[in-house]
């Protein structure tokens, strides 16, 4: 039978308030693909990393999330704004679902290639959006990690594949446009139309060849006319194809221009150095920055 003191202790223990459950930290690792990347750019790495971090970090809930594939064209600043809006909305949703209030989610940005520039510029925008330097950063980005990001531009050979593709599209569009002008009786390079080198040219036969051929077969008398008709048909078919592809010509130019505009920041030396300086300052404030 319990004594009076034991009953008193039990009563006092029952009356003690229980400590509220403190939610785990929330870690969001965001992956951003680079120029002409897709949702599968990172393969299975994000899911594997999430598994490893979840197994090794007892005090945090970890989510690795891939920023949905986006068009790497137009102005880089426009892509930065879209990413910042998406990340802001995602952070609100995750923090509300997790509990703990604003700032509970710690965010690490991981960008590949041009995606690293996009992530870095979004971080710079968040830092500049604070009302004053003493205000806390939200979304609470704690790290910015870059994979093969050209913070100081690119060597021509590094950019060869993507740039070559853009150049090929532009060259193809230009060639088709030239053919259209030629078949319509216009030449953009000179007032006198020149034969298209891609079409087979029929040289006139010499007198000796014509006389010899006419003696050997009667078909030879009709061959020049037949060849001429065939050439006209081929030329007409090519012109018709070019005409029906006139929208492709325009879109080809637009494609090349828009995508080259997106990577144009790689030749802005002053802007690239300013970006690095801002990231160095952010690192001094406690935000991890890794190349």
Approximately what portion of the residues adopt beta-strand conformation? 5-15%
Q: How are the strands of the largest sheet arranged?
A: 2-1-3-4-5
Count of DSSP-assigned helices: 9
Helix and strand composition category: alpha/beta
Q: Regarding quaternary structure, how should these chains be classified?
A: single chain
Please tally the β strands and state the result.
Answer: 5
Reported for the largest beta sheet, the result is:
5 strands, parallel
Instruction: Give the overall shape, derived from the CA principal axes.
Output: globular
Unreliable parts: 198-202, 216-220, 222-229, 231-235, 237-243
Span of the ends, CA to CA: 69 Å
Radius of gyration equals 34 Å
Which whole number gives the mean pLDDT?
74
Q: Which bin fits the share of residues in helices?
A: 40-55%
List SSEs in N-to-C order: HEHEHEHEHHHHHE
């Amino acid at each position: 039978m319990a004594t009076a003191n034991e009953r008193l202790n039990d009563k006092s223990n029952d009356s003690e308030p229980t400590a509220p459950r403190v939610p785990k930290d929330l870690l969001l690792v965001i992956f951003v693909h680079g120029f002409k990347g897709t949702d599968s750019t990172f393969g299975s790495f994000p899911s594997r990393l999430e598994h490893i971090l979840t197994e090794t970090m007892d005090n945090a809930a970890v989510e690795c999330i891939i920023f949905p594939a986006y068009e790497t064209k137009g102005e880089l600043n426009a892509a930065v704004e879209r990413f910042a809006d998406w990340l802001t909305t995602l952070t609100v949703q995750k923090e509300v679902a997790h509990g703990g209030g604003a700032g509970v989610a710690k965010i690490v940005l991981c960008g590949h290639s041009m995606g690293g520039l996009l992530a870095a510029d979004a971080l710079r925008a968040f830092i500049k959006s604070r009302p004053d330097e003493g205000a806390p950063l939200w979304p609470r980005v704690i790290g910015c990690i870059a994979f093969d990001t050209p913070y100081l531009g690119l060597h021509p050979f590094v950019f060869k594949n993507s740039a070559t593709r853009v150049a090929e599209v532009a060259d193809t569009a230009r060639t088709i446009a030239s053919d259209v002008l030629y078949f319509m009786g216009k030449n953009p390079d000179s007032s006198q139309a020149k034969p298209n080198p891609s079409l087979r040219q029929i040289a006139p036969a010499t007198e000796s060849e014509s006389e010899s051929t006419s003696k050997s077969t009667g078909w030879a008398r009709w061959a020049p006319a037949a060849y001429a008709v065939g050439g006209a048909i081929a030329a007409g078919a090519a012109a018709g194809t070019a005409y029906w592809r006139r929208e492709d010509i325009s879109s080809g130019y637009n494609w090349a221009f828009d995508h080259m505009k997106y990577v144009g920041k790689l030749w802005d030396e002053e802007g690239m150095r300013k970006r690095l300086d801002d990231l160095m300052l952010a690192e001094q404030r406690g935000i991890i920055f890794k190349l």
